[in-house]
C-alpha cells in the first residue's frame, strides 16, 4: 500500500523595512538591512513563535533626560510594545521571551547635517535597546550592536539562529538613504505631536 507523501509546510519569508515589525510561527525566516536602526529578534521557544522589529530613535541631540523618558525614547518603547503585544496575542508568555539585538551602527550620521560633533544616533539606539530589555526583564541572549558598519540579518525559526553579514560603511549608502528618510519623517511626526493643542 502506498502512503500519500507528507506535505512540507511553506516557509513564511518576510523582509522588514524601517518602522515595521512582524510576528510569525515556525517555519519562518525574517530578514532586514540595518545601519543606525536597530532590530530586536524575539522568540518564545515553547510555541515556536518569532518576531522582529526595525526602528530608529529619531533625535538630533543627546537627551538631557533619561532616553526612556525622551520623545524619541517613548517612540522606541512603542515600537517594542507593538512587537511584544503582538506576540502575546498569539500565545507567547512574557516570562518565556528571549531577545537578540542587532544594528545601531554609526552609519546615518555621515548623511545628516547639523548633528553635534561625535554624536552617534546608532549609539543612542543601542543603549535604548539594552536598557529597555533589561528593565522589562527580557533576557538579551545575543547581540551585535554599534560600530561603524551596516548589517544584513536573517532570523530563522528553525533554531532561533540569527545569521548576520556585516556591510562596510562605504558600501552602506543605500541603507543610509532609507534611514535618512525614515529619520526625518519621525522627527517631523514628533514635532507635529508637540504642536497639537488638546481640549
From TrEMBL:
<dbReference type="InterPro" id="IPR005659">
    <property type="entry name" value="Chemorcpt_Glu_NH3ase_CheD"/>
</dbReference>
<dbReference type="GO" id="GO:0050568">
    <property type="term" value="F:protein-glutamine glutaminase activity"/>
</dbReference>
<dbReference type="GO" id="GO:0006935">
    <property type="term" value="P:chemotaxis"/>
</dbReference>
<keyword id="KW-0145">Chemotaxis</keyword>
<dbReference type="InterPro" id="IPR038592">
    <property type="entry name" value="CheD-like_sf"/>
</dbReference>
<comment type="function">
    <text>Probably deamidates glutamine residues to glutamate on methyl-accepting chemotaxis receptors (MCPs), playing an important role in chemotaxis.</text>
</comment>
<protein>
    <recommendedName>
        <fullName>Probable chemoreceptor glutamine deamidase CheD</fullName>
        <ecNumber>3.5.1.44</ecNumber>
    </recommendedName>
</protein>
<keyword id="KW-0378">Hydrolase</keyword>
<dbReference type="Pfam" id="PF03975">
    <property type="entry name" value="CheD"/>
</dbReference>
<dbReference type="InterPro" id="IPR011324">
    <property type="entry name" value="Cytotoxic_necrot_fac-like_cat"/>
</dbReference>
<comment type="similarity">
    <text>Belongs to the CheD family.</text>
</comment>
Amino acid at each position: 500500500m502506498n502512503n500519500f507523501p507528507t506535505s512540507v509546510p511553506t516557509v513564511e519569508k518576510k523582509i522588514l523595512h524601517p518602522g515595521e515589525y512582524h510576528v510569525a510561527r515556525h517555519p519562518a525566516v525574517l530578514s532586514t538591512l540595518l545601519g543606525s536602526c536597530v532590530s530586536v529578534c524575539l522568540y518564545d521557544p515553547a510555541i515556536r513563535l518569532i518576531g522582529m522589529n526595525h526602528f530608529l530613535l529619531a533625535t538630533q541631540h543627546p537627551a538631557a533626560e533619561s532616553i526612556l523618558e525622551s520623545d524619541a525614547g517613548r517612540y522606541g518603547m512603542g515600537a517594542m510594545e507593538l512587537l511584544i503585544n503582538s506576540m502575546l496575542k498569539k500565545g507567547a508568555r512574557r516570562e518565556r521571551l528571549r531577545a537578540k539585538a542587532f544594528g545601531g551602527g554609526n552609519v546615518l550620521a555621515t548623511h545628516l547635517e547639523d548633528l553635534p560633533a561625535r554624536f552617534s544616533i546608532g549609539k543612542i539606539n543601542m543603549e535604548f535597546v539594552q536598557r529597555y530589555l533589561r528593565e522589562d526583564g527580557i533576557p538579551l541572549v545575543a547581540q551585535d550592536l554599534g560600530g561603524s558598519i551596516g548589517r544584513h540579518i536573517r532570523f530563522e525559526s528553525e533554531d532561533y539562529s540569527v545569521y548576520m553579514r556585516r556591510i562596510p560603511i562605504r558600501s552602506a549608502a543605500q541603507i543610509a538613504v532609507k534611514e535618512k528618510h525614515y529619520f526625518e519623517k519621525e522627527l517631523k511626526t514628533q514635532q507635529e505631536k508637540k504642536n497639537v493643542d488638546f481640549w
